[in-house]
Write a structure and sequence with these properties.
The protein is an all-alpha fold and about 90 residues long. The chain contains four helices and no strands. It is about 80% helix and about 0% strand. Helix 2 crosses helix 3 (about 60-70) and helix 3 (about 60-70) packs across helix 4. The protein is flat and about 45 Å long.
């Protein structure tokens, strides 16, 4: 079963790479998206260790970084609100 999942992963990764390389996507889009991801990770890291939010911790993982990259500062509020609702 493990070999089947590895095969599915390889085929889907190759298909995705083929589609991304075949389409003409503006080069600035990748740079802008990468910049947003890096800045989002830095913002979460700064919030965690600056002491601004003393009782809460936002984990650095792809889901939280992606949420903050797409939504911006309200994404941080969304994550903190979800933590408060789910863990309270």
């Amino acid at each position: 079963m493990r070999i089947v999942w590895l095969g599915v992963l390889i085929v889907s990764s190759c298909s995705l790479a083929f589609l991304l390389l075949r389409r003409k996507v503006p080069g600035g889009w990748f740079l802008r998206f990468g910049t947003h991801l890096v800045l989002s990770a830095f913002a979460i890291y700064a919030l965690n260790f600056s002491g601004w939010i003393t009782d809460w911790y936002i984990p650095l993982n792809p889901a939280t970084i992606g949420t903050v990259a797409v939504l911006g500062v309200p994404g941080i509020g969304l994550i903190l609100g979800l933590q408060q609702i789910l863990y309270a």
